[in-house]
Amino acid sequence: MYPVLTHKALEKLLKLRFKEGFLSLRDLPLPNTFKDMQKATQRIIHAIQNKEKITIIGDYDVDGVISTTLMKLFFEEIQYPIEWIIPNRFKDGYGLSANIVSQIKGTNLAITVDNGISAVYAAKLCKEEGIELIITDHHLLAPEIPEAYAIINQKQEECSFPYADVCGAQIAWYLIASLKNKLNIKINMISYMELVSIAIIADMMPLQHINRVMVQVGIKSLCVSTKPAIRAFLEYYQKKVLTSEDIAFFLAPLLNSAGRMEDASYAVDFLSSTDIYDANVRLERLIAFNSLRKTTEQTLTHQALLQVDSKDDVIIAVGQEWHEGVVGIVAARIAQLCQKPSIVLSENSKGVLKGSGRSFGECDLFGIVNSCREHLDKFGGHQAAVGLSLQKDKLESFKSKIQKKYKSRDYNQEISDLQIMGEFSFSQINFELTALIKKYEPYGFGNPMPKFITNDVEILQIQTMGKEGEHLRFLLKQDNMVLQAVWFKSKSFLEIDQKVQIVYTVNENHFRGKITLQLMIDKII
Fold first, then answer.
1. Which end of the chain is less enclosed by CB atoms within 10 A, N or C?
2. Domains detected in the chain
3. What are phi and psi of 298, to 5 degrees?
4. What is the full DSSP assignment across 505-516?
5. What is the dihedral of CA 205, 208, 210, 216, to 10 degrees?
């Protein structure tokens, strides 16, 4: 049962998401609120002054790609040559590892971005090789911390930075700001914030506190960006402005596809393109990767769904040599379709199972999998997403224990869509409502687009859309008010004059200079 909403009641609920109110750039904490920020800054400046070899070590997801690109662009701007490397998902594994250390021999100072906080063994190898190490990371700390010259991570107990939920690119941005201040040079930090806004959205950081303002300012700057990569993207997708949805559903998957399908360095090369010709060529390559990713993902999702046991509280699917680059997306698809947390694993020729998990609803998937750690070889992540590997002979015991651990948490099984804010009547859906909704943008993780539910809705008209008729367009009526609605990727069979209950979001449809209200259907019951 959902509360009946008015505009005033909706605004009250939306305000509760922002306990500090709406922050501005003036509210950003100073760089030195991070533990070891000053220490790391001084060491990097010492390396520059003494012409030491510096290597940046990134990660293959969007946050890691953006973090690496930020550091690359900064050192290019101050005209200091550096090396950079992003581990290959298939050859090197995640983050700073023994494989990576062997590739950066001769480096004097290594700086990790968006990784490194769990690299205990690799840090020891760095020390043996005479490589001084600075770790910048935002992930949860394991019981044992790597030995490094400096560690910048907001989740350290001794760190006074006031926000726990920031991504790797934000920490890289802060490091650049600290270096800028110490070097006393003029650099446009808003230009760097453009890319940071992409990472915040892609890494599913809550769009609250400083994250909200950094995304707002970053997106505003992206819309007028002079970066060839951004201009090429906007031109290809025929967009005059960018929204958080454009980043989440178009740009982020493109950047991610390089690391998923081949090598994330292609995404760094694209973002740091120096002219529009190079940017267009590199964009075409990413588009090809993304198309392959979509095809592979669809195939594996179908195969994984065949393994689903409805009795399980946590879905676990395993496949022989499934593409490691897409198992995380497949896990997310299964979680959404089955409305349960899901883990998808790929078995290699050596009997090692490696994969990803995605949570659903209230479930703290990290906590549950962490309590089964004795069955795992490797494990990491956060509440909503995990990465793991284990031996094939441990699979059954792992599956058994994870089901028990889920049941012991006593999660509320009834709450399936926490984004539904309440019940609305069609009479309240107007431009005043969309103006109110816009006030709380950008929407995303931690600040989801408000969903509403309406009962006794009559279907007046149904039309198919799309090349294969995979989308539906409706005319819907309630209390003598008629509204247009769209339902993407729906295979539901509905009839004219049928009375239904709908779950939806509201937006404005701009077409040929005319603005109309439109419902975006999420579910019809």
1. N
2. 34-284 (3.90.1640.30), 307-409 (3.10.310.30), 417-524 (2.40.50.460)
3. -60, -45
4. EEEEEEETTEEE
5. 90
Q: Are 39 and 149 in contact (CB under 8 A)?
A: yes
Bond preceding residue 442 cis, omega within 30 of 0: yes
Provide the 10 A C-beta neighbour count for residue 471: 15
Distances from the Cα of 489 to the Cαs of 358, 412, 524, in angstroms?
22, 29, 13
Asked if 93 and 199 count as a contact pair (C-beta separation under 8 A), the reply is: no
The predicted model scores a pTM of 0.90
DSSP string, 246-311: HIIIIIHHHHHHHHHHT-THHHHHHHT-SSHHHHHHHHHHHHHHHHHHHHHHHHHHHHHHTT--TT
Name the H helices within 37-153. Answer: 37-49, 62-77, 98-103, 120-128
Residues 490-517, mean pLDDT to the nearest whole number = 88
Q: Give the side-chain half-sphere CA count within 13 A for 460.
A: 11
**Cβ burial, residue 505 (10 Å; 0-12/13-18/19+):** middle
Strands (E), 78-149: 83-85, 109-113, 132-136
pLDDT tens sequence across 446-462: 999 999 999 999 999 99
Is 254:286 a contact under the CB 8 Å cutoff? yes
Q: What is the pLDDT of residue 69?
A: 98
**CA atoms of 249 and 239, how far apart (whole Å):** 14
Contact yes or no for 176/47 (Cβ under 8 A)? no
Residues contacting residue 163 through CB under 8 Å, at least 6 positions apart: 29, 154, 209, 210, 211
Q: What is the DSSP letter of 447?
A: B
**H/E run at residue 151:** strand 150-152
Q: Which residues pair with 516 in a beta bridge?
A: 509
